[in-house]
Amino acid sequence: MSYFRPNIDRMEGYVPGLQPTRAGVIKLNTNETPYPPSERVLQALREALGPRLRLYPDPMSTPVREAAARAFGARPEMILAGNGSDDLLTIIVRSFVGEGELAVIPDPSYGLYTSLIEIQNGRICYAEYPDDYSMPPGIAQPGAKLTFLCTPNNPSGTSLPPDQVAAAAREISGILVIDEAYADFADTNCLRLPHELENVIVLRSLSKSYSLAGARVGVAIAPQKLIEGMIKVKDSYNLDQLSIVAGATALDDPDYMRANVERIKATRAYLSRQLAKLGFEVFPSQANFILVRSRSMPAKTIYERLVQKSIYVRYWDKPRLSDCLRITVGSPKEVQALLAALSEIVPRSSR
Predict the structure, then answer these.
(1) Residue 1 in domain
(2) Which residues are CB-contacts of 95 (< 8 A; sequence separation ≥ 6)?
(3) Residues 275 and 289 in one domain
(4) Same structural domain for residues 117 and 64?
(5) Looking at the predicted structure, is the pLDDT value of residue 350 above 80?
(6) 337 located within any domain
(7) Same domain, 279 and 157
(8) Is the full-model pTM beyond 0.90?
């Protein structure tokens, strides 16, 4: 006998990337930055460790909203802060999708979208990406309450032109969620769209470019009416005191973030060239990771042999991805270790 709702029993649930904790591991599987938070953030956290931790945090995370407004060119009333962008995705799905209602998810993309819709017992239409990961032709479905677009897309790393995203938003009758968790590594973004269209929500994460994956801070930028509705749904205190301090300080230190982004983009270009020399098909990435397709041996075998060498990348045993690996752009030292390991693993005849 199960006590769960039938839809919860049926679903698999989202499985995050492995988080190995033993010493000596090279972790290139969950898209963290290889660089630490800025010294300004660390100093602000040290100053925040005091008596105020006995008090509840600001329920609206006002310092984060104000700093995000400055960073992303919006009014604070257009900003909602969350415990990472995953929290914001949960708020969005709970706000707009009821039981039996339709959501559109591009495929393949971020797996959490599916889990959140299944929790609501909603219906899912998968809009399959073309081979080049351009705009899915079936993205605008009649009656869809919610449509997702991840750009740059996870796991492909490919980006969609903002004008094409805007055109899709105009065709969609419900809400379009533009997940820009990796946009700081891309050449373009969709930050202007919430100012132009009433049905657009743009998500930004501080986990990647701002080096705050452990603090869990994200923001939604949307028309004020949408933010006001989602405030009713969010948890009372969805960011803790230290995350508010870290997030607001990081957003107000953009020069440090941009310097690290440029370092990661340079390493990304180098890694892409070297992986191609090793015989991999390399998808053009606008993110802080690279998706590669193995031409010489099963991707799962490469993954397992890398694990034996204490190097973790991401592998999915699912259609269109089972011959691929997603590799986070690590530090130059980590990248060299990865390339050395792959040189031993990948057959020479494939290079």
Answers:
(1) no
(2) 229, 230, 232, 233
(3) yes
(4) yes
(5) no
(6) yes
(7) no
(8) yes
Dig out the tokens for 346 from the structure: 């990948």
Q: What percent of the chain has pLDDT over 90?
A: 93
Q: How many residues does the chain have?
A: 351
Any bridge partners for residue 79, and if so which? 221
Residue 1, pLDDT > 90, answer no
Q: Give residue 347's pLDDT band: very low, low, confident or very high (50, 70, 90).
A: confident
Q: Where are the alpha helices (DSSP H) in 156-298?
A: 162-171, 193-196, 224-231, 241-251, 254-277
* b/e sequence 220-250, b meaning 16+ C-beta within 10 Å: bbbbeebbeebeeebeeebbbbebbbbbbbb
Cα–Cα distance measured from residue 304 to residue 212, given in angstroms and rounded to the nearest whole number: 29
CATH number for the domain that contains residue 319: 3.90.1150.10
Q: Amino acid identity of 58?
A: D
Enumerate helices (H) and strands (E) in the chain, giving the number of each: 12, 12
Whole-angstrom distance, CA of residue 212 vs CA of residue 198 = 30
- Residue 14 pLDDT greater than 60, yes or no: yes
* Segment 41-71, tens digit of pLDDT: 999 999 999 999 999 999 999 999 999 999 9
Residue with tokens 């105009």: 170
Identify the domain containing residue 304 by its residue range. 6-36+255-350
Binned at pLDDT 50, 70 and 90, residue 133 comes out as: very high
Query: Structure tokens of 76?
Result: 């604070």
Same domain? For 155 and 282 the reply is: no
Strand 311-312, strand 102-107: pairing: unpaired
- The mean pLDDT value of the chain amounts to 96
Which pair of tokens denotes residue 37? Answer: 């938070």
Tokens linked to 226:
């949408």
Tell me which of 232, 253, 274 is where a domain ends: 253
d(CA 123, CA 249): 40
Please name the amino acid found at residue 317.
Answer: D
Measured from the Cβ of residue 272, the count of other Cβ atoms closer than 10 Å reads: 20
Whether the pLDDT of residue 105 is over 70: the answer is: yes
- Split into its structural domains, the chain has a count of 2
